[in-house]
């Protein structure tokens, strides 16, 4: 069985959601980003020397390790072309989804992190918050045509990734006024794959905490 390293309330939820949408059941291992421990005792430095999740360890002869959220969700979805979770490689529809995924990684996810960790000067924090709000506003506008999901009528990897980086409260970035985005978030919240991801995450985090107690 493959293994998926996750951290609490982070972008690894995107991989959990896509795995759940596909009916896949990787073993979940929790990585505590603060004390660097793992729920199964693995040395995470050996798993990913860069020290971040998600990492999917494939069930193959080489124990190949896939990191980078975009790569992991796209790879899983590409292996199930009938799922509708990602358009076929080489199509313009795929280019649009890749654009959205890259935008999410660079303009949203990685902009939140120094804010959440309170690493910025007040001026830097304000500049970054504005960038984040503008990025979410672009998504809100996109949803304004009545589409249910970011790419249209079908839930895709982009919905899973954007949802898993909705850290606006922790970053102090006000986006509650973006009504199309908030309605979309409620739709994602309600998906069984998402509810299961949250429950599974809470279970493995609790198990890890109980080991440390
Ligand atoms: N480039 C990576 C970055 C992933 C990342 O930033 N992961 C965060 C959680 S969302 C993490 O594990 N941070 C722990 C750390 O950097 O110490 C990706 O796109 O997947």
Question: What is the level-2 CATH architecture name of the largest domain?
Answer: Up-down Bundle
CATH topology of the largest domain: Glutathione S-transferase Yfyf (Class Pi), Chain A, domain 2
The order of strands across the largest sheet is 2-1-3-4
Order of helices and strands: EHEHEEHHHHHHH
End-to-end C-alpha gap: 29 Å
Structural domain tally: 2
Give a list of the ligands: glutathione
- What is the chains' assembly state? single chain
Q: Characterize the overall form.
A: globular
What share of residues is helical? Answer: 40-55%
| Low-confidence runs of at least 5 consecutive residues | none
Mean pLDDT: 97
The whole-angstrom Rg is 17 Å
**Count of DSSP-assigned helices:** 9
Describe this structure in words.
This protein has helices spanning 12-21, 44-47, 69-78, 92-116, 122-143, 157-163, 168-171, 179-189, 192-212; strands at residues 3-6, 27-30, 55-57, 65-67. Strands 2-1-3-4 form a 4-stranded mixed β-sheet. The chain has 9 helices and 4 strands, in the order βαβαββααααααα. Helix content is 54%, strand content 7%. The protein has 2 domains: 3-82 and 193-212, Glutaredoxin; 86-191, Glutathione S-transferase Yfyf (Class Pi), Chain A, domain 2 (Up-down Bundle). It is globular, with a radius of gyration of 17 Å. Bound molecules: glutathione. Residues 7, 10-11, 33, 51-53, 68-69, 105, 113 line the site of glutathione. Glutathione binds at residues 7, 10-11, 33, 51-53, 68-69, 105, 113.
Which secondary structure elements does this structure contain, and how are they paired or packed?
Elements: E1 3-6, H1 12-21, E2 27-30, H2 44-47, E3 55-57, E4 65-67, H3 69-78, H4 92-116, H5 122-143, H6 157-163, H7 168-171, H8 179-189, H9 192-212
Helix pairs in contact: 1-3, 1-6, 1-9, 4-5, 4-6, 5-8
The chain binds glutathione.
């Amino acid at each position: 069985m493959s293994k998926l390293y996750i951290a609490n309330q982070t972008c690894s939820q995107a991989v959990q959601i896509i795995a759940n949408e596909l009916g896949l059941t990787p073993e979940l291992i929790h990585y505590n980003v603060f004390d660097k421990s793992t729920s199964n005792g693995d040395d995470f430095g050996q798993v990913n020397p860069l020290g971040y999740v998600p990492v999917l360890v494939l069930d193959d002869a080489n124990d190949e390790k896939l990191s980078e959220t975009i790569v992991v969700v796209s790879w899983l979805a590409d292996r199930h072309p009938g799922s509708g979770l990602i358009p076929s490689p080489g199509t313009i529809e795929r280019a649009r989804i890749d654009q959205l995924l890259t935008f999410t990684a660079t303009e949203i996810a990685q902009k939140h992190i120094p804010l959440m960790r309170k690493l910025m000067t007040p001026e830097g924090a304000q500049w970054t918050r504005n960038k984040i709000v503008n990025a979410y506003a672009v998504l809100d506008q996109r949803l304004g045509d009545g589409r249910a999901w970011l790419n249209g009528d079908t839930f895709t990897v982009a919905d899973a990734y954007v949802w898993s980086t909705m850290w606006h409260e922790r970053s102090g970035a006000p986006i509650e006024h973006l009504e199309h985005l908030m309605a979309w978030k409620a739709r994602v919240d309600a998906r069984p794959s998402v509810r299961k991801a949250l429950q599974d995450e809470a279970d493995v985090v609790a198990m890890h905490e109980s080991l440390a107690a």
